Each structure stands twice: as C-alpha cells, then as structure tokens.
Amino acid sequence: MPDYDALRDYLERQSRPELVLSLDEIEELIGDSLPRAAQRASWWDSLRSPQEKMPQREACLAAGYVATRLPDGKGVRFRKLKPPR
Fold first, then answer.
1. Which of 19, 40, 42, 47 is most deeply buried (CB count within 10 A of its CB)?
2. Whole-structure pTM value
3. Do 9 and 61 meet the contact criterion of CB atoms below 8 Å apart?
4. How far, in Å, are 6, 8, 22 from residue 72 at the CA level?
C-alpha cells in the first residue's frame, strides 16, 4: 500500500485555496502507483463516510484539504478547509 505522507507534505506547503493534481502527478509525489480504486470518486471524497479511515483521505485532511476526484477521473481537486473560528 502506498504511503501518502509525501502527498500530505506537498499539500501542507501549498498556500492556494484550491489546486488540481493529475493521478500521474500524485503517483510521482508518493513514489508509487495508486490502486485501481483511486479511479473511483468515493475513494478520494474526504467528506464521504468520515468514520471510514483511509490513508489517502487522512493525508489530505491532515494537510488541511478536502479532496474530490475530477469528473473525468484523471485528477483530483484539493480545496483548503476553512479554519475553525
């Protein structure tokens, strides 16, 4: 199973409120192939089934982003979470 720490670290260094990475770019970051399940929107959706802990979702949330797979299935949009008030 890939380690998503590099994705988390990359996202933590970002200051943009939103960014898109292709699945290829994510694979480069993590230094491993993504599983076939990464093609499914539900695999990335940080807000779906929050009780179900998944390492790629946890990495995004730890960096302060929520992830959503793009409709074409070739990339992921990361949106910065608003800080709590």
1. 19
2. 0.87
3. no
4. 24, 23, 11
